[in-house]
Amino acid sequence: MQYRLSHRFRIDPPASPAAPAVSTADPHMAAAAAHYAAGRLDDAARACEALLAEQPNACEALHLLGVVRTAAGDPVGAYGPLLRATELAPHDARAHYHLGNAYLALERFADAEASYRCALACDPALPNARNNLGNALRRQGRPLAALDCYRAVLAQRPTDAPALYNMGMALADLGEYAAAIDCHRTVLGRPPGPREAERYPDVCEALAAALVQCNRHDEAVAVCRTWQVLASGAWRAEWNEALSLLALGRYAEAWPRYERRWDLPEARAARAVNEPPPVVPTLAALAGKRVLLRWEQGRGDVIQFVRYAPLLAGHAAAVTLCVYPELTAVLRRMSGLAGTIAEGTSDPPHDVAISLGSLPLVFATTLDTVPAAVPYLAAQPEAVARWRATLAAHGPGPHIGVCWWGSPHSRRSSIPLPALEPLLRLPGFTFHALQQEIDPAHRAWLDTHPLLVNHAAALVDFDATAGLLAALDLVVTIDTSVTHLAGALGRPTWIMLRHSADWRWLLDRTDSPWYPTARLFRQGDDRQWEPLVASVCGALAAGGWGR
C-alpha cells in the first residue's frame, strides 16, 4: 500500500528555555553566557570547555555546556556534562530538567521521565519540566498520564503553546481527534511567542493529521496550504495535501503533488544513493520508446496502478514491468507487455524508466477517466479448476473468502478476528481464510472457533491467491493487497473500511471508480467494527452479491 507517512507526524520536544542563570565573575563563563545569548553555540561551547580545562568540576560550565550541546543537536555530547552537573548540584531543578531534555533527544524516555521528576521534586512550579515529563510519558505509550501533565501546565499558563500542542498530540493518540483539532487551532489562533513561530509548521502538520482522521479533507487541504506558506519548501505539506485532494476526488490537482512522495525517507532509501527523483515524461514523449515500469510502494499499489501498463504499451515501442518477485507470475499474463521481471534482477535495455505510481499523472487521470475495465488480471485456469475442486470438498457453498488482518503498518485497518464471529456464524455459507500468514493469537482463536477453512499453506504467492479468489463466490476483505487483487480479477469484493479510509476509496461512497465489482462498507463516526460487520451480515443474508 502507499507510504503511510500522511498519518505519521514528527514529535519534537519543545525548545529548551533559557540556560540557567550563571555567574559572570569568571571571564570564561561571562563569555559563554554572552555567546549563548547571541546564538553563537560553538563559541559558547568553547568558552565552557576552556573553563572546564582549568576547573573540571565547574558546575555552571558543565550545565551550560550540556544546554549548548543539546541546542546544537548533540545530545550524546550533552549527556555527560549534564549528568555530572546534577551530581554536583543535586538540588538544581534546571540541571535535572536539561538532563531530561538530553535523554528525551536520545529517546531514552524512561530516563527522561526520571530526570523530569527530579526537577519537579526540586521545583514543583517548573512548567517546562512538567510539559516535557508529559512528552516522556507519551513517548512511552502513556498518553493519559501525559494529559495530566499538560493540563497542569495549562492550569498555570492557560495559553502555553507547547502544552496545547502536546495535549493535542496526546488526544490524537487516544483517538480524541475533535479535541485535538481544538488544541491545535487554539495554538494557531494566537500570536506566537518568542521562538514559537518556527514551530507553527509542526502544529499545522498535527492539525492536518487530526482533520484527516475526521475525514475533514477540505479543511486539511487549507491547513496544508497554510503550512506551505509558513515553511517554504515544505514537501511534507504538499504530500499531505495531495493525499487529501485524492480523497476528495480532485485528481487533476492531486497527481502533480503526489510526486512529492519521492521526498519521503522510504522512497529515498528505495532509490540509488544520490539518484535524483524520477522525471515524469509526457505521454507523447514515450512514443516509440522502450519503457521500463518500476514497482514502488506496496503490493496493492502495484496491482492498482499496473492497469496502466497495457495502455502505455499502445503508445510505447515496448513496456517491461519490474515488480516484487511474488507478483511476477500473476502479472506475466497481462496483455501487450514485452516482459515482466522481478525486483533485483538486471534491467533490460530501455530508453525510459517510470514508476508505476506516476502513470495516473502521465495519463492525466480524473475521476471520470480512471481506466476501470476489469478484469485486467487473470488467474491460471488450471489453478482455478484445482481450487474449485478443493472448495467443493467443503460443501456446496456459497464459498466466501475472508481477509481480516493486514501488515504491521496497516493495523488500524485490520479487524480482530473475534469481531467477525457474527459473520462467520451465518448459516448456509462456507468461509475461507485468505491470509497467507495467520497471527498466532488468531490461530488459537480458530482452534476453539473452527469457523474458517485455513488455506495459508497453499497461498505461496499472488498467483496461488488469484486462483483461489477466482474460484470463490465472494471476497470479504479489509483494505489490503488481497483487495486490489480481487478487484483486478473482477471478482465480487466487499471491502470493510475504517472510518478514515485510504485516499483511493474516496469519501462516503459505497462503490469504487477503480474497481467496479467492489462494494464498500465503512465504519461510522463511532469507529467501531461491530456495526460495520452487522451491515455486512445483513447484506449477505439478503443475498446481495453485486454492488
CATH level 3 topology of the largest domain: Serine Threonine Protein Phosphatase 5, Tetratricopeptide repeat
Q: In total, how many beta strands?
A: 10
Detail the poorly predicted runs: 1-19
Cα-to-Cα separation, first versus last residue: 23 Å
- Strand line-up in the sheet with most strands: 7-6-5-8-9-10
Strand content: 5-15%
Q: Report the CATH superfamily of the largest domain.
A: Tetratricopeptide repeat domain
* Global mean pLDDT: 90
Shape-level CATH architecture of the largest domain: Alpha Horseshoe
Rg: 28 Å
Helical content, roughly? Answer: 40-55%
Largest β-sheet summary: 6 strands, parallel
How many helices in DSSP terms? 25
Topology:
Elements: H1 27-37, H2 41-54, H3 59-71, H4 75-88, H5 93-105, H6 109-122, H7 127-139, H8 143-156, H9 161-173, H10 177-188, H11 200-213, H12 217-230, H13 235-247, H14 251-258, H15 265-270, E1 290-294, H16 299-305, H17 308-313, E2 318-323, H18 328-331, E3 339-342, E4 352-355, H19 359-362, H20 381-392, E5 399-403, H21 421-424, E6 430-433, H22 440-448, E7 453-454, H23 462-471, E8 474-478, H24 481-488, E9 493-497, E10 518-522, H25 529-541
Helix pairs in contact: 1-2, 1-3, 2-3, 3-4, 3-5, 4-5, 5-6, 5-7, 6-7, 7-8, 7-9, 8-9, 9-10, 9-11, 10-11, 11-12, 12-13, 13-14, 16-24, 20-23
